[in-house]
Design brief:
Helix content is 75%, strand content 0%. By secondary structure, it is an all-alpha fold. The relative contact order is 0.09. Keywords: Receptor, Signal.
Length: 168
């Protein structure tokens, strides 16, 4: 602080106490409560926009993370819906049981077509396109012991190439 500001601060602090010592204590009334409430209302009106800006900045930093989490959940839900649809749509496949080699490719292809038809394009892109959806459905599907990528996924991808899925 500079000398004039120090002197001014000292005078402001000393004046009320000197006035009280010189005369009766009732002579000088200092409205501390009014000053405090005025100062707090002024500070609150200045701090509320700053706090709102801080909250907004925090949400902006978390938004990509939240968006990623929500997209991942939507992908998982779409894949599960594709598995369920494929098992219900293909004759010979029973929902809740293991899928055999003879119906496995058809179940994967039917489930992939369903997901491509109903899922938003953003979810399809994040899942890896048609091939990514098919491989995720293959991994989520309960296969019997002989099921593998060569025996189920590869024929399913060939079925999807022969009759490509269309958006609804």
């Amino acid at each position: 602080m500079t000398r004039p500001s120090i002197a001014l601060a000292a005078a402001c602090l000393a004046c009320p106490s000197v006035a009280c010592a010189a005369g009766s204590p009732d002579a000088v009334a200092i409205p501390w409560g009014e000053w405090l409430s005025t100062a707090l209302s002024t500070a609150a009106s200045a701090l509320v926009p700053v706090a709102a800006a801080a909250v907004t900045a925090g949400v902006a930093r978390v938004a990509p993370w939240a968006s990623s989490l929500l997209t991942r959940q939507r992908i998982e839900a779409a894949i599960q819906a594709g598995v369920d649809y494929g098992q219900n749509a293909v004759a010979g496949a029973v929902r809740g049981r293991t899928v055999g080699l003879e119906v496995g490719p058809a179940v994967v292809a039917a489930g992939t077509r369903h997901v491509v038809a109903i899922a938003p394009s953003r979810v399809l892109r994040r899942a890896g396109g048609v091939e990514g959806v098919a491989s995720r459905i293959f991994r989520a599907m309960p296969l019997d012991a002989q099921g593998s990528a060569e025996t189920v996924l590869k024929p399913a991808l060939q079925l999807l190439k022969d009759d490509p899925p269309r958006r609804a």
